[in-house]
Amino acid sequence: MSGNDEKDPDNVEMGGLGDAEDVGKAEEKQQFLPNGDDVVVVRTGTSSTDSFVGLGKEELLEFAEDPYWIRVRYILFILFWLIWLGMLVAAIVIIVLAPKCPPVQTLAWYESGTVYQVYPRSFKDSGSDGNGDLKGLESKLDYLALLKVKTLWLTSVYKSVPGSENIGYEAIDQRDVDPVLGTLEDFKSLVAKLHNEKYEMKIILDFVPNFTSKKHNWFDKSQKSMGKYKDYYIWNAGTNNDTSPPNDMKARDSLPAWTKDPVRGDYYYSAFSKNQPELNIYNADVRKELEETLRFWLDHGVDGLFVRNPDKLAELKSMLAVKASSSQPSYQVLDSGSMFDMNDSLSLISEWRKIVKSYSSDNILLTGDGMTNGQQYGSFNGSTVCDLPVNAKLYKLKSGCDGSCVYEAVNGLMNEMASTRWPSWMTGSFTVDRLVSRSRLSSEYVDASNMLIMLLPGTSFTYYGEEIGMSMSDHLGINKMRTPMQWNEDNSDFSKNKSWIEHSPKIHSINVQTELSTGAGLTHLEVYKALANLRMAPSFQWGKFYYSVSNKNIFSFVKRAHGFDSYLVTINFGSNPSTNNYVGSAGGVVPSEAKIVGYTAGVSSDFKNGTTVSLSNVLLKPGWGVVFAWPNEMK
Predict the structure, then answer these.
(1) Are 244 and 238 in contact (CB under 8 A)?
(2) Which phi and psi angles does 208 have, rounded to 5°?
(3) Which of 76, 126, 315, 467 could disulfide-pair with 136, CB 3.0 to 4.6 Å?
(4) With a threshold of 0.90, does the pTM exceed it?
(5) What is the DSSP string of 147-162?
(6) pLDDT number for residue 322
(7) For residue 434, how many other CB atoms are within 10 A of its CB?
(8) Left, alpha or beta for 632 (phi > 0: left; psi -120 to 50: alpha)?
(9) How far apart, in whole angstroms, are the C-alpha atoms of residue 509 and residue 584?
């Protein structure tokens, strides 16, 4: 075909594709020429002989055994492990050198918060009969929550002699609630509400093992010498042909401790009152009855039981020979230990604790009222006597108890107990004159006393009304410290009716409503609330305790937990102003300056929360208390 021959579109081939076999394996595409008329068939592709099919097994093995690639593999392998080890070392260094999270100590339920003791008849009346009751108490749980209370402690609720002024302690049935206070169903309702998610509070109940009322059916049967009840109580025929008592001892009420019973003709013994005959604790059936009483209240949900008058449990048989002397009042002999067997008492209490613990390891048994702290904090025959002794050393807080007096009380307890045991602090109870009324202690010391018990190491106990500075009425006898809780100025919030006993004369200014009102200034209740919040700080919860400056006027201490703020608490319990330098005290831990985080009512305007001040020259007037804080660097 010559160059000027016209091209046949059907026979034009582009880019020679070789022989027919290869052409058959190529792909064909049609393309139009630029003039739009001619069509060119374009074959693309590669012959099968020119395709890449990868390395075979033999070729791969040949490369793998090449010294060059062997070195590369070893180098990469070594680098991988060096990098991994480097990362591991770096992680370890970071863990070792990085700041530690401060340790948090878990406390038992009775250790962290305040225990609030209530005399139920005087707290809140729900039925308008003038008597406080369990339902009324249940209606005031929000108030306890406001105070950061974690545990409610009820004095005895035992069914008592009708008309008794000492409900719970003239028992005719230890396994029922006195009708004045409500019903057993009311008690169950209170326990359930305390335990629910809103409040998560615990409840402690008084356990009274020493005596019953003369009206108890046990005593009635014992008078008649009926069967096993014959020796339920302590009886003696007396002397001089039954005409004289065994001895001339007197009970706590200063009346004779021995009373001749007209039915039986013998004398029965009472350590407190002739209306409260003493149970014979050595009688096996009596001990069984007391165990069943413990179990009854544990079955009804109580978390702890307080053994009242544990030092008067086991009377010695030699007590019959004890005589009062002219130099020692006979009722004091009762307290001397010459009439009671402490070993038998401790053994019995430790057995009761085992019963309490058999229900739950979290349940506790408390004691107090007369036993030494050494006895209560110790063990008997290898068994712990109690979980928490209620310390009464601060009952001595009264007019004349200055900084040195407070130091002796605090140090006395701290020295008596083992370092592994937990202390407790209480300034009032339904058997002790109220704080404000003790020897006319000035009301300025109310905040100081609350600051002390709330911030010292250990469990703080508050008797109802102490947080607002309630006083008492001396002419009311045993009920003088049991006057109704003062909710408002006319106390209509206690009861819509006349209360069972008159209220304190200072109710118009000392009551919950007034102390929480706008315009009242910094009140006892507001100070108490602030202290309750401050008590939740880790250093106050479980921090180490150090004495700081202590002298005739000042008692001060430091609480310090690793990794948390440290605190200096300083209070003037004296009768004169006192200026002191706190820097370097408490073993050198107190810094030159610190921030104010709490104070009592009436202090100088120089003390304002959040203000950082020098600790080298601090003036406190009588009744003043201040809390300082500073950071505790983690090391």
Answers:
(1) yes
(2) -115, 95
(3) 126
(4) no
(5) TTEEEEEEPP-EEE-T
(6) 63
(7) 25
(8) beta
(9) 42
